[in-house]
Design brief:
Largest sheet: 5 strands, antiparallel
CATH architecture of the largest domain: 2-Layer Sandwich
CATH superfamily of the largest domain: Histidine kinase-like ATPase, C-terminal domain
Structural class: alpha/beta
Radius of gyration: 59 Å
Strand order of the largest sheet: 2-1-5-4-3
CATH topology of the largest domain: Heat Shock Protein 90
Distance between the termini: 100 Å
């Protein structure tokens, strides 16, 4: 069985067909020979019974009258029947009356007595014995017995067996020939399918297909196999695409991390350098003023980068919240131009505005739209060479307004144009690039405009041909008086910090694991008259509260070990005499909406995001302290 299982399908089909044919033919031949033998014997029995009846009729009178010679002559007439070997007549009492034995016959058994009985016969391998009663006027007078030779029948049966064997062999040969040809109808498509599967497996090429077959089960198998290959090919293509995208994402991530590292480290260099020079005490008043201005400028540049990252994070998780108002765009355009004019004047770039005052109202968030305009103008000025030109145009087109910002700058390469609004994508991300930035500004622009139901597109004739960014916003259907425009916070000048006695008499506990931040806050609050104590961890703060109860606690959220949430939970679990009801301000770099909600839900009264504006911190401390005093 194992050998049969391991042979090829062609041989299996041939063997099965031939064995089936052989078995069928063999059974047919056996049935044919057996049928012929039975038929011949039945025919011989019938003939011999008829002869026995004739002999009985002709010799019954002789038996009645005891005329043995007459009976012998009648029996002798059986010489004419070559198959009759012998015959005997028996009286009514069973004794033998007369006999006949063929002269050339072998020994014939004719007993001296034959018991009276009805008709019957006895079959031996080579002989047939038949007996019939003899009657006269319906009265039994004796019995006639005839013995016939069956060797002729056996000879004929052997002849039939020989013929059947010859037919069987010829039929088997024909079955082998026909099966070897007909099996190809089944085996050829299957072998073709096997060859195709082997080629696909070896070449890993799932675009190969097997040749379609007939509309039968094998054809269905081939069609299913081809459909499976198509599915594998689609999945393989999708996996390759996903792998390419993942590799591209990894490359983009690496490039982005390199850019972020560069952009965040760049402003730190002058900050640290100026701080060391200031701490050395070797700078005059003019150099010290330049140092402080440089430190502030670079710190705000770094804060701007962090704001962009937070904006992208909010956009990606769908946490951007819009304050929709009916507003006019010309004041926003003027404010954006004013906020970017110093950078334009530094490069002697002429900024021109062409504004249609009847463009109509739009429904939008003024701060976010201000951010969009500031990003587009800053981008145009950054990529425009000295003495170039930047133009801002506002016009109404059908049911929407268009704001276009065009420049005469370096332009955009055609291959990069489809990717200009993607996050972290920059035309030049190498270390030799001429312009800084994270590549987030235009991505933020697109997402904000899409949140307003508008669209933004970029066009450029190529490198060195300038670029145009066009924003489309739908006109508001409800025309009401617009609210006064609010300028984006990044365009507002910082509030200068002037030490005062506004916090005189206020006891403040400051908690932060960063020593520099701790000292900075302590200095700011002390200069305003507050009594300040510090703690570098939540455990240290709780220890201070055991023997000194402040009017206010200012705590960082992100700290090793117990963070700010754990600190406020343990504070609120204390009694009033151990700081349980002291108001608290959360100071954290986690500035998302959900972070602010979590801070307030935890038990803090205010949430102040980093980086800290000293004037803002003093105002918040004074405000919270005044609330607690009421």
């Amino acid at each position: 069985m194992r050998r049969f299982r391991d042979i090829s399908i062609r041989r299996k089909l041939t063997v099965v067909n031939v064995l089936t044919s052989m078995l069928t033919l063999l059974l047919a031949c056996i049935a044919f020979v057996a049928y012929e033998r039975v038929t011949f014997r039945d025919a011989a029995l019938g003939r011999l019974a008829t002869q026995a009846a004739v002999v009985g009729d002709n010799t019954s009178s002789a038996v009645v009258f005891d005329d043995a010679p007459a009976a012998a002559r009648t029996l002798a007439a059986l010489k004419a029947e070559p198959n009759v070997l012998g015959a005997a007549l028996y009286r009514k009492d069973g004794t033998r009356f007369a006999t006949y034995v063929r002269a050339d016959a072998p020994q014939v058994d004719l007993p001296a007595e034959f018991p009276a009985s009805e008709r019957g016969h006895r079959l031996a391998p080579d002989r047939l014995t038949v007996w019939r009663p003899m009657t006269v006027d319906a009265e039994r007078v004796g019995t006639v017995v005839l013995v016939a030779d069956l060797t002729e029948i056996e000879s004929r049966v052997r002849s039939y067996i020989g013929i059947a064997a010859l037919v069987f062999l010829l039929s088997v040969a024909a079955a082998v020939l026909i099966s070897s040809q007909m099996q190809r109808v089944i085996s050829a498509p299957i072998l073709h399918l096997v060859d195709t599967a082997r080629i696909v497996s070896d070449a890993q090429n799932y675009a190969i297909r097997a040749q379609p077959g007939a509309e039968d089960e094998i054809g269905l198998l081939i069609a299913t196999f081809n459909d499976m290959l198509a599915q594998i090919q689609r999945r393989d293509t999708e996996l390759e695409r996903a792998r390419d995208e993942a590799e591209a994402g990894n490359r983009a991530k690496d490039e982005f991390l390199a850019v972020v590292s560069h952009e965040l480290r760049t402003p730190l260099t002058p900050i640290l350098s100026w701080v060391r020079l200031l701490s050395g005490g070797g700078l005059d008043d003019s150099a010290s003023a330049r140092a402080l201005a440089s430190i502030e400028r670079n710190a705000r540049s770094q804060a701007q980068l962090i704001d962009d990252l937070l904006d992208v994070s909010r956009i990606m998780v769908g946490k951007v919240r819009l304050d929709i108002q009916q507003l006019e765009l010309p004041p926003l355009i003027d404010a954006a131009i004013d906020s970017t004019r110093p950078a334009a004047d530094a490069k002697q770039i002429r900024v021109q505005a062409i504004v249609d005052p009847r463009a109509g109202l739009v429904a939008g968030d003024p701060e976010r739209l201000q951010q969009v305009l500031w990003n587009l103008l800053s981008n145009a000025i950054k990529f425009t060479p000295r003495e170039g030109r930047v133009q801002v145009q506002l016009q109404r087109v059908n049911s929407h307004v268009e704001i276009s910002v065009s420049d005469t700058g370096q332009g955009i390469a055609p291959e990069f144009l489809p990717h200009v609004f993607e996050r972290f994508r920059q035309a030049d991300a190498s270390s030799k690039r001429a312009h800084g930035g994270l590549g987030l500004g235009l991505a933020i622009v697109r997402n904000i405009i899409e949140l307003h139901g508008g669209s933004v597109r970029a066009t450029s004739a190529g490198v060195g041909e300038g670029a145009t960014f066009t924003v489309e916003l739908p006109i508001s259907l409800l025309q009401t008086a617009p609210a006064p425009p609010r300028i984006h916070p990044r365009a507002v000048e910082p509030v200068p910090f002037q030490p005062s006695r506004s916090l005189a008499g206020i006891r403040v506990l400051v908690v932060d694991d960063e020593v520099d931040t701790l000292e900075t806050i302590e200095t700011v609050l002390t200069q305003c008259g507050a009594e300040v104590r510090t703690a570098a961890s939540a455990a240290a703060a709780l220890e201070v509260l055991e023997h000194w109860v402040p009017d206010l606690v200012v705590s960082d959220i992100g700290m090793p070990g117990d963070d700010g949430y754990a600190l406020i939970a343990r504070m609120r679990a204390r009694g009033a005499g151990h700081g349980g009801h002291v108001p608290a301000i959360a100071l954290t770099a986690y500035a998302r909406v959900e972070d602010r909600l979590r801070v307030l839900s935890a038990g803090y009264q205010m949430h102040v995001p980093k980086p800290i504006e000293p004037a803002e911190l003093v105002a918040v401390v004074a405000s919270v302290a005044s609330w607690s005093a009421r």
